[in-house]
Amino acid sequence: MSYAESRWIEPTGTMAELVSAVDGRLIASCSSAGLDFGGMAAYARAVGGPALRKMTFHQRAERLKALALYLNERKEALYELNYDTGATRKDGWIDIEGGIGTLFAYASKGRRELPNQRWLLDGPVENLSKGGTFIGRHIVTPLQGVAVHINAFNFPCWGMLEKLAPTILAGVPVIVKPASATSYLTEAMFRQIVESGLLPPGSIQLIVGSTGDLLDHLTGQDVVSFTGSIDTSSKLRNHPTITQQAVRFVAERDSLNSSVLGPDVTPDSPEFDLFVKEVVREMTTKAGQKCTAIRRAFVPAHLLDAAQNALAARLSKVVVGDPRRDDVMMGALCSRAQLADVRSKIATLRKEATIAFGDPDQVQLSGGDAALGAFLSPVLLRCEKPDDAIEIHASEPFGPVATLMPYRDVDHALQLVKRGEGSLVASVFTYSDDVASELVHGATSFHGRIILVDRDCAKESTGHGSPLPGLVHGGPGRAGGGEELGGIRGVMHYMQRTALQGSPKRIAQITGSWIKGAPELLFDTHPFRKDFEELKIGETYRTKPRIVTLGDIEHFAEFTGDTFYAHMDEEAAAANPFFPGRVAHGYLLLSFAAGLFVDPAPGPVLANYGLDNLRFLKPVSPGDTMQVRLTCKDKSQRNADYGEVKWDVAITNQHDELVASYDLLTMNARPRSTYAVEEQAVLKASPATVWKMLRDFGDIASWHPSFSTSKLEGEGPFGAGCVRALEMGKAPGVTREEITAFDDAGRSMTYRIVEGPLPVRNYRSTLRVEAAGDGSKVLWSALFDAPSDVGEGLLAGVRKVVLRKGLDALVQQYGG
Length: 816
Known about the structure:
Blueprint: E1 2-4, E2 7-9, E3 16-19, E4 26-30, H1 37-53, H2 57-72, H3 76-84, H4 89-113, E5 120-127, E6 135-142, E7 147-150, H5 158-170, E8 174-177, H6 183-196, E9 204-206, E10 223-228, H7 230-237, H8 240-244, E11 248-253, E12 257-261, H9 270-284, E13 294-300, H10 304-315, E14 320-321, H11 336-349, E15 354-357, E16 365-366, E17 379-382, E18 401-407, H12 410-418, E19 423-429, H13 433-443, E20 447-453, E21 472-475, E22 482-485, H14 488-492, E23 495-502, H15 504-511, E24 521-522, E25 539-542, E26 546-547, H16 550-560, H17 565-568, H18 570-575, H19 586-597, E27 605-616, E28 625-637, E29 642-652, E30 658-669, E31 672-683, H20 687-694, E32 709-713, E33 723-727, E34 735-743, E35 748-755, E36 761-772, E37 775-787, H21 788-814
Parallel strand pairs: 7-8, 7-10, 8-9, 10-11, 12-13, 12-19, 13-18, 14-16, 17-18, 19-20, 24-25
Antiparallel strand pairs: 1-2, 3-4, 5-6, 6-23, 15-17, 21-22, 25-28, 26-28, 27-30, 28-29, 29-30, 31-37, 32-33, 33-34, 34-35, 35-36, 36-37
């Protein structure tokens, strides 16, 4: 089924049958007939886009993290479908948990590397005038369109999530179009995403089947991100609307990736074995259906036979068959059509190479159906004359196939590698500094990634074929010329960089970041007495002046051990072109500056955790005066408890000349308040009957509709100290609660939250049962500390979802 305009759409019309790659069973049928593709694009722009753009980077990052937690708790259901794509459990781990891991990675990067704003400032201020009244600065904002993600069949989960994560973090809604062959697995994970309720309506939609006329409805605010073949990429890139509207087009295409065994390596070297293992792993993982898989393996000519023998020996141990079986190491290709394509490509390559291992027409299986499944033996080809070959460097069998080739020297190896005309990745196996440097510098412009493997890093290496969220995934030429992932670089594909020009006051007002020349607001109290919320951008504190004496300089030198001549030897210092004579240490000035502006009493400033952009601009001589200006430059909320404050610090001398400048980073507490709530219910059952159920601390999920699971941890005696773990419906994460007081005779217990997703502190709750006429009364209270800006909302949620919903369930069960 497709998901359009926040509803699931039943497929109609002619259906495409999707069958198991293992035994040919019908898994699902799909069609996108009847979808309003233009309506989907319009809905994304009108509903999803505005909802995402109202959120800050940090809020969107929190949703990604919550989504990752939600999917991770439900991954087992996906593994069962994974087998029918032909993938083993290990292959599925790369696809399913690798995709979830990408969500986690972008959630973390969004919180750590992006501001808690709806826009991003890119680069420093550009001064455009002598007087400093006219400046320029770059701002990056989300595109106001939709991202169309067209994904390949080989990674139905990771392929969706690795594009989705940076796009949602950027604030742009997504239409996902998976390859039909394995779309049933994509749809299963997508359904979980929808059920989580974590992403705003309109932020995600799904097309299972053809894209119809979707591309006709795109504009210059939209993005198409594609993974797949060169032929399909070319058709999409040349679509009239994409060309005429200058729609951003990001392509990551299959490529003829290389691995090079260095000329310094011998059969006895660790790097030889590492090379052999990696080539075999890349041939057999996902049955070789990886855009990053090794297709061309280059070895020194005198090692050709040794490499072939070692590869063949290792490949002979690979068990092919039903991926559900524990003994199976390689499963099937994704479909019989893919199997036919790979066999055809092998036939083409055999015109220039011989088969060194394997048989494309028959394979010994451990389970699975050879006639109805899509199984293929790993096939190693050997090309004796790679210089004369054409198809070896141009045609890619997208399966468990690689070609082994000899080279004469490093220059020759580079020539052969470049015959691939641009690749996603190359790997180099060498222990020689010179060989590594020569190969890297000769090949970088042809590759998106190069991995250098040797005995020192192999144990912790992520491998040739593993794209990582923080590193570029893409490549030039045949690889598509695009980039995905690459950390925050991947987010920028869905945003627009715009140069702003104006006065410092206007630019600061628009960007929310103080700039030199913008108005300074004088503090009415010491800045370190203000919490995160009270601080205003532009608030400035000017310290009293301090004279720097020769005694200060000498004491600092003796105390720290920094007796550099510029501070201690007048004659030597005067001979230095930068100093007039003995001068103060730069770090002495920083220490004195802190002494001038720090308020020592406990307060909202929790920590000073660093300096950025420190520059010493003019020397300070004995007898000079220093003074500090401290201005609140930026603020970014980190969590419910505190936020980061960036201070612009300027140290000046008695002539008002700037002698040092830097950004001071502090963590400032957010204001908190205490919130309390109590609810009660009168029941027709006796206190003993009600208490018998409520006292079972680990079984709350059996009667409370808000909790999906609950269980006691450990096996200790019941009572104070017992801990339970709770999950709340669709909400991500686990809450752990501990009994702090238990009175069985008095029918009451008090417990606290040990950890959980709620942004509260000191959460404690008391549940008590009393007699009330012929029945009983249940009183349930909660008390917690929370940030003032979210406290009332949390209070309402606790009242409604925890207390009231639970009490209402008791009334329904016992009567009231």
